[in-house]
């Protein structure tokens, strides 16, 4: 996943007082402050999804917060836990769907399946203003984001032309469930402020630049996890793999798998560095796999003269 349109997005997110924090980024000209007369305050129509399952604590907590903020929220999420599903889309000719409540749909598939179903079968007359994926239990930092169902759901929305935000809680330290659950409260507070900022700065237009989503990671702070982040940063995805699996042959056709965290220093300006500093990471993401112009030039040099 690559990070483009950083400067326009930086201008969009600057003046962090409305977020209750300070957003750091590359130098950019801040957008002119909007007056109360021309700032739309209408509720947003939000498709809320995740990869932990439609009834997981994170999505229910965020549903309550977004609804309390006045937004029209509909949950369209996987029936069961689909962590690590990435952008997988089912190829079966049928898919199971439950409708346990007026504003809740549970799709027996991946997070991407849930988003596709929501955009096609639930929001039939008009696409939602925003897809929010989360709040995820645990981090989606560095290479974890590439394989994350939480981020995959947001990518699927962006592919379909709908702005999307993926929201996760946690750092790379060993997880303590109670602390992460407590940290979801300040995470959700930040998410609601971010949604309000995007709405207010859009002036009735698109909430984000076309083809761009946001991957938001909130740290876990304080003895019980409920501490407030020290600020927020506009970041890029750290390239290191975070986790590595080791395999041991059991001799019976099966292999034992041990997964460990890769000990690598966080690169400055990345999502990992931001969360490790106790700050919220906000990374612009795109669904494409295109390289930067410089990388394309270097690759072209390697392939010069190559023939079938």
Describe this structure in words.
Helix content is 30%, strand content 21%. By secondary structure, the chain is an alpha/beta fold. The chain has one domain: Survival protein SurE-like phosphatase/nucleotidase (Stationary-phase Survival Protein Sure Homolog, Chain: A, 3-Layer(aba) Sandwich), CATH 3.40.1210.10. The strands form two sheets. A ten-stranded mixed beta sheet has the order 1-9-12-8-7-6-2-3-5-4, sandwiched between helices. Strands 10-11 form a two-stranded antiparallel ribbon.
Spans of at least 5 consecutive residues with low confidence:
1-18, 26-37
Distinct helical segment count: 8
- CATH topology type: Stationary-phase Survival Protein Sure Homolog, Chain: A
CATH fourth-tier homologous superfamily: Survival protein SurE-like phosphatase/nucleotidase
Average of per-residue pLDDT values: 88
CATH class: Alpha Beta
Q: State the helicity in percent bands.
A: 25-40%
The count of domains is 1
How are strands sequenced across the largest beta sheet? 1-9-12-8-7-6-2-3-5-4
